[in-house]
Protein: Amino acid permease/ SLC12A domain-containing protein
Organism: Atta cephalotes
Amino acid sequence: MPDKVAPAEKSVLSQSKAARSNSDEGIKLKKELGLWNGVAIIVGIIVGAGIFVSPKGVLRNSGSVGQALIVWIFSGILSLIGALCYAELGTMIPKSGGDYAYISDAFGPLPAFLYLWVALFILVPTGNAITALTFAQYILQPVWPGCEPPYAAIRLLAAVITCLLTVINCYNVKWATRVQDIFTGTKIFALVIIMVAGVWWLCMGHTENFQHPMSGTNTQPGYIALAVYSGLFSYSGWNYLNFVTEELKDPYKNLPKAICISLPLVTVIYVFANIAYFVVLTQDEILASNAVAVTFGDKLLGVMSWIMPFFVACSTFGALNGAIFASSRLFFVGARNGHLPTAIALINVRNLTPMPSLIFLCIITLILLIIEDVYVLINYVSFVEALFTTLSVSGLLWLRYKKPDLHRPIKVSIILPIIFFIICAFLVTFPCYVSPWEVGIGVIIILSGIPVYCIFIDWKTKPAWLINVSYNFNIACAKLFMCVQEDKTA
């Protein structure tokens, strides 16, 4: 919530000379991310648990192996087109915050706040909570062979790992990026094992699962949209590098390069990993499995099958670290623009990290871990995420018309955002017929942010008690976490 800042508060939140002396460039987030750090963030966030655990979502809605592979290829190409559109947005509007920054510049503060509202309480922490739960489940599985680990133990370990990664991200950006680089390499190695094992099985003459690849294909538009949704869910995260544009070295070059390296790499890996799954496992085996990679390992790797649960855990660990790193910058930028309490826009004077934003995100994630069935939230917000992605790309088209002379270091062909917009509009529209309840809940979640915006942001004559509460909260956070506001003159 934006608030009037009293002189005493300014003296604490603004930078002192002592704080400035800690850095020749002042207190602000530093440009410490190179090209390969950017690639590691994109690949590391995209390749989470999805490709190891739930390729069956694409297969179930596609109805056939052939169409499932087409959906995986199509989802990769669509993600690449979207990422190239975001490369133009990210270099045209070189601010951290991703969709929030682009929607704000194109359509104003209310739509931007509604995106922030949904991302703050549902999209980001829910995704982080589910990733942490998946990590915990696969780490604990060997301790309870043959049965599910107790959910209380899973939630406890998920909470511990969330707090650990938050501490790492609070302490040092380089530590966080080093963790990301290591675990991105680990998960790519795991997928290479799956691909090589699949090729070996195919070379032994096991082609029976590809005898009739299009048999059973589902041609209903609504279910095709749901199949693409499932595919895009496994590709989700391609826009997270845009959340940290201000920390990327030479973003005009490294942002598009990182995108052009990452998305084709992930698409090739995903398609060949799915081919390996389909070669080794029947459709019924895939649809009956809760973790396709583990079922694959049990059938093909023998005594080494234990490595699959280990690699799934490593993959989710890296994905969670990348998501915490990138998404905390979204809330940092939202607070810097006055859409969240000022405290969330503070930077630790020693480590130069957005510590309050990271801790705030951690707290919301921990709260969601208490919910008995956090997974149900995904059904309600997958539509919402697609809706705001559509809004961001429509913003690109609108800015082409509204501000044709705006400096665009990268300018993609107008055909790409038009294609992406049309496909996203299809993906947003058709699930309304197939899953009207989930879509309705998603719309309600969005609209619930409007009264919050009116009270805490648009209301200019707030009562004194509300201003004092905000003032005391911001001061307490600044003192507790040794933080100040960003040096905008540095």
